[in-house]
Amino acid sequence: MPDIDWEGMFMFSTSPLEIIIRGTLVYWFLFLVFRFVVRRDVGSVGIADILVLVIVADAAQNAMAGEYKSIGEGCTLVSTIVFWNFLLDWLSYHYPMIGHLAQSQALCLVRNGKLLHRNMRQEMITEKELMSKIREQGLEDLAQVKDVYMEGDGTISVIKREQ
User: Fold this and answer.
1) Which of 11, 16, 73, 146 is most buried, judged by most C-beta within 10 A?
2) Three-state SS at 132
3) Is the pLDDT assigned to residue 147 strictly greater than 90?
4) CA separation (Å) from 143 to 24, 45, 113, 160?
5) 25-71: per-residue pLDDT in tens?
6) Domain extent listing, the chain
7) Are strands 114-115 and 145-150 parallel, antiparallel or unpaired?
8) Which CATH superfamily, name and number, covers 107-160?
9) DSSP letter, residue 73
């Protein structure tokens, strides 16, 4: 049976403060990229949730695979990432202004059956893509549509015109 380096498995080879700073910087960089650059077609899961899932998976994988020198280093990085996600959610809930900055607002793409081309360009939605989403709601024509919104999570909401 091979020897197990129990001490090496739990001892830090990198300063815990450095791990926390690196985790913090990567979290906030990726959060800002996802918040302001990548918006469409994210789905119904929040951007911060996807971000945490990806970073935590990578951090945990590195800790388990031995890229870090110890399990403690991986756990420190995962804890840092989870902390920032929790704090951002907590602050967004308790302080609406922070919630407004952290979460994208709905953007109107169609108002009273008329395409808002400027907003569509902003989200890089073609008329063909938009009409596909409208047809998914059982509507064939813009005349049947009151409003269409690109929601903060990237989904498209269609509000039917009352008959």
Assistant:
1) 73
2) helix
3) yes
4) 49, 31, 5, 9
5) 888 887 777 677 655 444 456 677 777 778 777 766 665 555 666 77
6) 6-102, 107-160
7) unpaired
8) bsu07140 like domains (3.30.240.20)
9) H
